[in-house]
Amino acid sequence: MNLQAITSNIPSIKEYQDQRVVTFRDVDAVHQRPEGTAGRNFRENRERFISGEDYFAVKRSELATKFAGCSKEGNPNIEVILLTESGYLLIVKSLTDDKAWQVQRTLINGYFRAKELPTSGQASPVRPLPDILKENMLAGKAFAEVAGIDVTRALIISLNETERQTGSNLSAYKHLLKRVDPEVKKKKERAAYDIDTMKNAILDILKANGSVAHYYINRKLKGRYQATDLHKALDALQADNIITSYESHNGNRRGRTATIWQITAPLAEGGES
Predict the structure, then answer these.
(1) What is the pTM of this model?
(2) How many CA atoms lie within 13 A of 63 on its CB side?
């Protein structure tokens, strides 16, 4: 679908409660989908949409009085759904082909946000930083949901865009977002460990494999604990005479010794009974 075909299908302007909105018929037309596709997607996922934020439910009679060209025929009390920008993005979330992405970009910039652009020769009004920040953060969150990407990264991009638009320094907010990033939280959780849990994990490895090299235990537990924590747990087990170790040259072509760990005989026998 070329750009001319897309723009020719952009719906006539409809505004409700100072927001631009579209109908299911508008969405089907601009995406060239069978009539009823957008309505079906909405009905199947209605519980995920927020009334007053993602959509407005109005009567057909009200629609006909507000928007030119809307038919007054039929039951005037039938509910008609008007989608906001966020509602539109949720409706087309399942449309991921190249054509759908192109249509989405054109409709967002050429319809929903077109009213924000100043007319020729008109100075752009100065908008407060909180308004710009809120708008960009909502757009970033919506894009993350549609694209299926990490929300934190999308919000950081939104902060970068706000800095570009306003000249403000928002590095403190970006640093705060990074601190609550799931990967950062995972590293912190990994750093804190329960020594008893780790000792049990080591014993499970030894019971299942018999005598094993230190590097094998480290490899099995890699990512779950810090290396220093592994040494602490091994030392504690050895101090309690639960496990023992010895040095071995077997299988080491470089002539280096490998530390081999094994459960002491009494515990091994007890575990097998």
Answers:
(1) 0.40
(2) 22
